[in-house]
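Researcher: Good morning. I'm working through a list of sequences from a screen, and I'd like to move beyond sequence-only analysis. For each chain I'm collecting a predicted structure so we can compare shapes side by side. This is the next one on the list. No need for commentary yet; just the structure.
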Amino acid sequence: MKKNTRFGVIAIALVGLAGLGYFAYTANRAPMAGTPAPGSAPVSIPTAVEVARVAASDFADDVAAVGTLKSNESVVLRPETAGRVAAIGFKDGAVVAKGAVLVVFDAAIQDAEVQQARANLALAKSSYERNVELVGKKFLSQQALDSSAATLKVQEAAVRLAEAKAAKMRIKAPFTGMVGLRNVSVGDYLKDGQDLINIEDVATLRVDFKLPENYLGRIGKGQVVEVQSDALPGERFKAVLDAIDPLVDENGRSISARARLDNAKGKLRPGMFVRVRLLFGERKGVLMVPEQAIVPGGQPAVFKVVDDKASLVKVKLGVRRAAQVEIVEGLAAGDVVVTAGQLKLRDGAAVRPVGDGAPKSGQGTAAGK
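Model: Good morning. Structure tokens for this chain:
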């Protein structure tokens, strides 16, 4: 009896498996929702994409860069000879005139050498003059006169040498400028070449910055440069392009340029970080699209929506600004381009524009509608 029951269970299981297999077969044979029946035309489901219209706008043609301010003239004064500081003739941060004595060293020895050289010069001069009289009276040979003349020239040179050594003990300002903070005091003994004080000409500043090499043909001396500093928000300073380095940096492929800025009010300081804007002029009717509309890959291209279909169009790009990119060739004002969802598209695919850039009811997506 048990044996018959076991056979019955197996038979029921086999019948159930057969029924499930038939159901699966018939289900796969039936057409799926949205799938065209055999022999009918294929049905294309539009892909939802975000779009934007190509806009024509006017903007100033310029290029931005970052730069550093430098003094028009800058030097660190150092003594040429060792000595002890006898006097300091300036206050920290003060403006000094060209030729002003800033530091005086003890020059007792040098002054004594000057007096000795002058005394020797006076003796040589009187000896020469006396020998001239003796030669005129035929009491002295011409050779002795020539010797005294040479001695006179040697003593004149000795005086100039002694005076030059004495002058080295007085450090003067090489130009009008602002002195820095001193680190020496009266009585300090300084070695030759030791730093004394820095002096900066800040009435005029140099603005050093770099530009990409593709701007080489567009920049020239005399162009207006606008300078801004984060330390003075809202203020703009005018500078003039003064020089362009003839050598292009082979590492960054950039051009070094320098502008000069009038800093008579003293608001800016050397070493400050600044933002530089070089003005080329104003351009009108420039076609701009969002940067995200550019299809990533090789040659720049965008998907233009024409009659609710995506058309891949190759374009030529220009400048970039504020998340917008200039379209030089390939599009016209009013064209609708895809800004999101390009990775799901192919040329000729049906699309359904959504978002703020989608055409309103009754408007087409082809250019001219």
